[in-house]
Every structure is written in structure tokens, then in C-alpha cells.
């Protein structure tokens, strides 16, 4: 499931996880580079399977609960075509019953 900014506290927690990870967090990363239609795209897929902090007692009211959460992921996409560059990032959460490791 795509994680968007309409859950601002959860989104901020996930951004902090990737930008300022705790010492005990390990990320798995894979990077692909494609040339499509004159455009070079580099995608970086990063996942974290340490998700207990999101399923334990949280610290703000009204937050969503993810009891079957298996991993948190982020895909970064850098593109370059001639003189134009683009950068995007998307965060995802994955339940145990729906993820492929």
C-alpha cells in the first residue's frame, strides 16, 4: 500500500526511519538503471523488515494500526533526459499476507 502524506504522523515517522535510521535497523537495497526512450532512469528500492516500532503502542491519538505489517519500503526514482532531471520518492507498507520477499 502506498503511504501518502494524508497520514502525516505515520509519513513523518517513515521518512525519519529512512533519513535518520536507528543503529539496529538494517536495510535491503537494490538499484536498477534503465534507458527508455532516450531517458535514463535509476530506481533505488529499499526495504526495512524491522517494523515492530510501528505495531507496538504508538505515541499519538487516531493513528492507523498495522497488525500484519511485514515491511516498509521506499522507491527513489532519478531520471535524466537531455538537460532535464527529476527525482521522486514513494514510501510503501506491506502486510505479511501480501508481500513477496
Can you offer a commentary on this structure?
The protein is an alpha+beta fold. Helices cover 16% and strands 47% of the residues. It has a 5-stranded antiparallel sheet with strand order 1-5-4-3-2, covered by helices on one side. Strand 4 and strand 5 form a beta hairpin. The mean pLDDT is 82.
Furnish the topology, listing elements before pairings.
Layout: E1 2-3, H1 8-19, E2 27-36, E3 39-48, H2 52-55, E4 69-81, E5 84-95
Antiparallel strand pairs: 1-5, 2-3, 3-4, 4-5
Provide the descriptors you would attach to this structure in a database record.
alpha+beta; elongated; five-stranded antiparallel sheet; 47% strand; 5 strands; 101 residues
Short description:
By secondary structure, this protein is of the alpha+beta class. Helices cover 16% and strands 47% of the residues.
Structural category is alpha+beta
Order of helices and strands: EHEEHEE
Molecular shape: elongated
Strand order of the biggest β-sheet: 1-5-4-3-2
Rounded average pLDDT: 82
- Tally the beta strands: 5
**Unreliable residue stretches:** none
Distance between the termini: 15 Å
Count the helices. How many? Answer: 2
Residue share in β-strands = over 45%
* Biggest sheet details: 5 strands, antiparallel
Radius of gyration: 15 Å
Task: Estimate percent helicity.
Answer: 10-25%
Amino acid at each position: 500500500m502506498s503511504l501518502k502524506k494524508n497520514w502525516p504522523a505515520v509519513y513523518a515517522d517513515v521518512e525519519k526511519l529512512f533519513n535518520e535510521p536507528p543503529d539496529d535497523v538494517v536495510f535491503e537495497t537494490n538499484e536498477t538503471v534503465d534507458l527508455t526512450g532516450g531517458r535514463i532512469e535509476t530506481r533505488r528500492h529499499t526495504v526495512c523488515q524491522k517494523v515492530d516500532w510501528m505495531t507496538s503502542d504508538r505515541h499519538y491519538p487516531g493513528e492507523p494500526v498495522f497488525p500484519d505489517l511485514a515491511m516498509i519500503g521506499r522507491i527513489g526514482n532519478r531520471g535524466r533526459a537531455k538537460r532535464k532531471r527529476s527525482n521522486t520518492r514513494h514510501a510503501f507498507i506491506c502486510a505479511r499476507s501480501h508481500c513477496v520477499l
